[in-house]
Amino acid sequence: METIYRDYAPQGVQFYYVYKHLQHPELDGYIQSFTLEERLMHIQEARRTLGSEIPWISDSMSNDLKHALGNSPNSEFVIDPEGKVAARRAWSQPELLRKDLERLVGPVENPTQVSDLNLKVELPPKVAASGVVPRVEVPGIMRAVKVQPESSELPFYAKLRAEVDRDFFGTGEGILYLGFHVDPIYRVHWNNLVNPLQFEIKAPEGITVSPSQGEGPQVEVPSDIDPREFLLDVKKQEEASQPLELAVRYFACNDDEGWCIPVTQKYSIYLESDRDLGQNLRRSWSWRPPEADQE
Amino acid sequence: MFERLDANRDGRVTRDEVTDRDQGFIERFDHDGSGVITPDEIVDAVKEAIIIQAARDANTQRQGGPRANFERTAPKVGEALPDASGYDAEGKEFKLSSLKGNYSVLVFGCLT
Fold first, then answer.
1. How far, CA to CA in Å, does B86 sit from each of A38, A74, A214, A224?
2. Which CATH number covers residue B53?
3. Minimal Cα–Cα distance from B107 to chain A, Å?
4. Tens-digit pLDDT profile for residues A35-89
5. B64 with A50: CB under 8 angstroms?
6. Which fold does the domain A142-284 belong to in CATH?
7. Do B100 and A82 touch (CB under 8 A)?
8. CB-nearest partner of A290 from B20, B56, B109
């Protein structure tokens, strides 16, 4: 893509990457943004780590661009000067995009090669130890459910991801996964020298959750960035519609800025699938082939 | 790729053998959460991926997956872009309707 940009931007073609919600959260540590400001911070992170020179556009937090343009995670469009679609595909294929532009704009003498690029790629920074807290093993294929953070004076330095096993949507019984993930865009880590993360859940009428509270493990190293994960049993009567209410307390530390602070934050958890939350590769696949449902 | 990452040639890839950028490799294939990747885990993951892709291809043919959904719902060649907007990197509204006057390329993506 960068080679095509180098060849056709000078000929007046405008290029944009459209930054959408993460398709595979937790890969390389990145997790879903809660706010537009955080999504714009992701764009800065993408610029820095990928070394791309192509401009970025951020999708809205209600994912309007993705919904309007076909809902595919890596789709590609060529738009003509009248604002109409000249070419489109569900998955970006740079070699076909180059052929589109050769047809529409004209061929390029001496096309840029990948070896000609000198992209300045930077690795994501690592602010503390990782791989010190074992990951939970989930019993089946998990699906993300909607989480609504309550307004907070502080950023959500650690963010909640909630998932239920796929069978829950048919039976009303299953496993609820709660994962509290340090957000790398804030360069923070857990403080293991004080009380570990603690949470409590209040369930509305018609829903039971067990256990209703939890505490993270005692960790020997003074700081780390591993997620704090919990598996709960959940039962929901069909007519129940109100969300679970969760409160979490943790300490977040930023060594660059020299602070360590206690944080209390709240969430509403709606036990309904949300396809705009992406799929975690560890928990959304299993040995069983996926059944006939929409991904 | 396994041989490239197995710096000490002990037949296992551990976290301290990979760069920060390749830590994602550990995440993807470390099914037992041990922090160590073995050749068997990679073989298992490849088998799993083949099974899943075959099932998804069959699903797509039966009732449509992401590609089929895209074909049905995305604006078609010759159609105008819909009235939707996002934001530029500075947070200012960016309307699809502003993409006129030149050829433009839009590619959806994200960090992961």
1. 14, 16, 39, 35
2. 1.10.238
3. 4
4. 999 999 999 988 888 788 899 999 999 999 999 999 998 999 999 999 999 999 9
5. no
6. Immunoglobulin-like (2.60.40)
7. yes
8. B56
